[in-house]
Amino acid sequence: MKIEITYNPINVSNTFTNGDIVSGQVSVEVAKDCQISSFYIRFKGKADVFWSETHGQTTHTYHAKDKYFSVRQYFIRDSNNSNVVRPRIHVYPFTFQFPLQNIPSTFTGADGTIVYLLEAVLSRSMRMDSKKSTMINFVGRGDLNPVPGLMEPQHETMDKKMKLFTSGTVAMDVNLEKSGFFQGEGLKVKAFIKNDSSREIKPKYCIYQKHSFFAQGKRRVHTKDLIKEVGKPIPAKASENVTHVIAIPQDVEPSILNCSIIKAEHRLRVSITVLQKPHVNSMLFSAWSYNLWCFSKGVSYVHNT
Predict the structure, then answer these.
(1) Cα–Cα distances in Å, from 164 out to 161, 200, 277?
(2) pLDDT for 7-46, tens place per residue?
(3) Count of helices and strands (H, E) across the chain
(4) Cβ atoms within 10 A of the Cβ of 174, count?
(5) Structural element, H or E, at residue 55
(6) Which domains does the chain have, with CATH numbers?
(7) How far apart are the C-alpha atoms of 174 and 180, rounded to whole Å?
(8) Among candidates 64, 63, 184, 45, which has minimal Cα distance to 106?
(9) Taking the model in full, what pTM does it have?
(10) Which is it for strands 15-16 and 137-138: parallel, antiparallel or unpaired?
């Protein structure tokens, strides 16, 4: 017996969002007469977190689940096992709809996943259930989880006194034009940098992702740099107005802010490095960090922290 699930894509990227209809069919290839007590397809969304930690001779495991929805559509429901299915390929159409409620986007991380799937389950008397499943890529609508002040400018100022390999101070006044950005749009960072130190300095820019997983009162965090760029050097005892544009990746993953056990963020870090000697690696002295949140419709949101 062979079970196959196919669904109809609604766009080129094969993604679904809140309220979208998922329709398709389940086909069952039967080689000989068989009695089926039940046959249904289940449409569900859930989040799972799991990791283990070893301390000495002891290993602790942490696990958490979050269920968003689970609905079924029955094709066969016969408690008396009197339904006999003849040898051939049987096709059963189905239709579901994604909830309009605020649910997180599909996500795969080191210690957790958020999945939406279709699962067909066929039950026969005195036999194990036959199952077949297929994943569906869901991208939640950003307007269901709005962040206040998206179009407001962001501003941060910091002074740093140099102590190692150099003397003097470095000051940076950082400005972002707004808080909301589209994927692929240029993230413009404007800064006034005052280099009162005795060495040449360089501004550096980094967009990185941060994944947090929560289970049984514990948290597990993973970070990864996505984009690293370096600005033009600023000589000692000089001040400059600097503008640097970073292209937010077209394929940046959506942020997860509406899941109780998984959080996915993106951050922009602006830092200053001081050149120790020519052709020698720079030393990091100070950094300014901004949260970069990415939602559906390709919108990214930035907030300073």
Answers:
(1) 10, 14, 13
(2) 999 999 899 999 999 999 999 999 998 888 999 999 999 9
(3) 0, 22
(4) 21
(5) strand 38-55
(6) 2-141 (2.60.40.640), 153-304 (2.60.40.640)
(7) 17
(8) 45
(9) 0.84
(10) parallel
